[in-house]
Amino acid sequence: MNTSYLPETINLHFLSACEMGCTHCFAPFVDCGKLSLSDLKALILKLAQAPRTLGMPKARRLNFVGGEPTLHPHFLELVQYAHKCGLSTSIVTNGYSLIRNGIPKELKVLELVGVSIDSLDHARNRKIGRVVRQNTISENQWYLFFGELSQMGVSLKINTTITQHNVNEDFTDFIRKTNPSRWKVFQAMVVRGQNCKGAEHWKVSRKEYDSFIERHLNVGSALCAEPEELMRGSYAMISPDGRFFDSAEGYQRYSDSILEVGIEQAWNQVQCDADLFLERTRNY
Ligand code: SF4
Predict the structure, then answer these.
(1) Considering the entire predicted model, what is its pTM?
(2) Residues whose beta carbon lies within 6 Å of some atom of ligand 1
(3) How many Cα atoms occupy the beta-carbon half-sphere of 158 within 13 Å?
(4) Could you tell me the pLDDT band of residue 77, with boundaries at 50, 70 and 90?
(5) Atom of ligand 1 at shortest distance to CA of 28?
(6) E strand residue ranges, the chain
(7) Taking 90 as the threshold, does the pLDDT of residue 139 lie above it?
(8) Does the bond joining 67 to the residue before it have cis omega, within 30 degrees of 0?
(9) Confidence tier at 277 by pLDDT (50, 70, 90)
(10) What does the domain layout of the chain look like in residue ranges?
(11) Which fold has domain 9-281?
């Protein structure tokens, strides 16, 4: 049974496809189908109409995540639709297609773009799997991209997942120069049935993760540390086939279909710890 109300930010993993192949990726959704465009819109409308917690000043935020959101054939249409429904919108992207093809003007409606950057080193990114046909994104390309986002008035968040490959990398200069609203640093999480094969080659201990965080405390208040135990069971997440899921027990546990049983019943079938959620979001 759930211990909390539906949080203000919902992560909609609306597709599993991605042009990259990070070894630690916990979102290949090997056990999921997908929703049609009309079902996705029906789901978004339901989320927009769901009751909100008293005292929450901002609109509920729908965070489009994947896989890689920009690869969905109706990505722009869905972002615009969510915005029209009154939701605040954001995405988490690997940046590849937005840098290669430019940022569509339709994305001006976004409140926030989160970019996943695990390394600034070409060879290291290749080891991580953060690569598309041998191409990685250079530091310079990130600076140009962030400049465009800033001109559009969209806030920037950087996500970095710590594995054996990057645990000794120093991001201090990069974070100071780019000055994101938040820099979320995750301890790579092993999820049974999704990314556990070969995990011994990339997972880091809590001690190794903490040493990375300690080395970066001087970047300032943008740094948000998320060790594994803080992440598990503290996010509201929806799978590509329209079910809430959690990873509190180390594997992805799914609710019934939200469109079939409704938000309240489906939400009560997964675990989200209100205290962990508040601790995780206290800097937002
Ligand atoms: S870029 Fe993100 S979605 Fe794509 S493989 Fe890497 S972690 Fe997974």
Answers:
(1) 0.93
(2) 18, 20-22, 25, 27, 66-68, 94, 116
(3) 22
(4) very high
(5) 8
(6) 9-13, 61-65, 88-93, 112-116, 155-162, 182-187, 223-226, 237-238, 243-246, 253-257
(7) yes
(8) yes
(9) low
(10) 9-281
(11) TIM Barrel (3.20.20)
